[in-house]
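Hi R.,

Here are the chain sequences for the assembly we discussed:
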Amino acid sequence: MPLLRLEGVSKRYSFGGTELPAVREVTLSISEGEFVAVWGPSGSGKTTLLNLIGLIDEPTAGRIFFRDRDVGRLTDNQKAEIRNRELGFIFQHFNLIPVLSALENVMLPLQIQGRSSREARQRALARLEQMGLSPFKDHRPDKLSGGQQQRVAIARALVTNPALVVADEPTANLDSKTALKILEIMRELNRKERTTFIFSTHDQRLLGRVDRRIEMEDGWVRSEVFGEHSMD
Amino acid sequence: MNTAWIKIAFRNLIKNGRRSLITITAISLGYAAVNLFGGFTAYMYAGLQEGAIYGNMKGHLTIFKKGFLEKGQLEPERYLLTATDLEEVQRTVGDLAGIELITPQLTLNGLISNGRVSTIFIARGVEPSALDVFWGHRLLTKTQDYEGEPLRDDDVDAIGVARGLARMIDLSLGSTAVIMTNTVDGQINAMDVRVVQVVNVAASVLEDKILVVPFKLLQRLYDTEGADRVVLLLKDGKETLPLQKTLQDAFTRRGLPLEVKSWQELSPEYRKTKSMFDVVFFFLFVIVFVIVVMSVINTMSMAVFERIREIGTLRSLGLKYRGVLWLFGVESLLLGLFGSALGIVLTVLGCLWVDYRQPLWTPPILSNPIPLRILYVPSFWVGSLVALILLCLVASLLPARRGARLNVVEALGHV
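And here is the predicted structure of the full complex:
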């Protein structure tokens, strides 16, 4: 059973009466433990596709199945529940809560679940340690570098042990060295913990270490390539 | 409640310190204004109550012959309490606990003359010993009661004359005068009296009319052994209504044609003033809380607008619609709590300032200035605190709902 299945999914936006297709008739499935990159130029529909996969947007046509459940039939609260327990998000701009420390940011998804502060703290500390950020646990986001902020965001995405992590351009705001390091961290977590990752990028250098590359153009899935390739 | 929301709310309040301070100040000023005015109205009500029960010697309960209030002036002999009635009343009331004082009274109108000119008077016939009990109870409306010497039970031609009346017909301490009225049978009767008191009457409209006369002297003038009322002072004013019912039932059981009235029923000025202040207070309350609500809505709207992306992030992390409401609700609650805490400090400072300065004022119905007070009414403070906190919570709902309803993708893309 695939973790996620999209059947003829399209998404159109309306701008002043003009319909603009962002994603067109996408059909694909993602299995547990996969490490998938969605790539293509700006405006190709990568972010929209990830928003649909992350259940934060709704398709105009087609159906999305998460663990064989048609998410189109779920209420807003049910989708929020899945996002909280089964999905993790990593954003291009990190999207950490500025008034919370690194540790408190990582604790958040667990606290949304209603876990005790003690348990949330323990699990968040473990994730921060895994990211090598223990010394920075009490730092607010504005006192952290871009790479550190993104690692906090990864810790936050993983703290609930989600089945799928959706990362939209996770390296776009980072220098190339840090970007590669972040990708390595994600890949390692994928291998060690069997966490499924799907991320978007327009940087072709990052595509060498993925299980599958989905190329998008003008909202269409132009190609799907399976297998790991050299990053060179 | 999730501690994360409290942390986020508190730190955002600190982060936007100036904005938070302005809102907290608005809330605290509104809260203090309501509390101070509430304390002032409580003082007004207590003062009016004290004036009616003790100052005007109406007691907590008054016993009349049934029909006296309607027809007593027309047929006095029929509606006066006879000596037998007074004994029955004494016997019935004697069986009850919680009575501090039971005393008969007689009220008459007539003419007072200094030998050259005459004017009308309203005489309150009271037992001098009871007078001390009544006036000794006053705290809020305490003024100098009279100039001269106290009336005594055994000095039956000594009277007190209201200051305005004394001025009007040129009476002073030691003066003699003649008081004249119809007896209970309709005959004219007159008596020589001696002025031993110039009385400060609280009510300005009665300042040129009131005589305070020993009960026995007024009985002789009226040629009766009865009284028109019997007044009861209770040890605990809260027992007024239960005792009124108990007493009325006892009279009915004994077949006595008597009725028992509470001081509220005999004090239309209290009811009217209270109604007026209740209306004034209601408008003040509404105005203050509209200001508070608008201030909180404004602050929370700005907070929501500034944190749209944060809302999008939290929603994508799985926060539900009601979670967003809580997030901003907690912030608004904290504003309300901090505002109220500061408001209580301002209220106490206001009360202390008034206690220290003790400004004098003359209420509309009184003739003499009395110290203005603002009573500490913690139960009122708690009531308005709860109302304020609820209002803050409700005020946050409008902007918070707007934030919670945002499309997650649009919220994430907000710059």
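The beta strands of chain A are 4-15, 18-30, 35-39, 61-66, 69-70, 87-90, 164-168, 196-201, 212-217, 220-226. The mean pLDDT of chain A is 91.

Let me know if anything looks off.

Best,
T.
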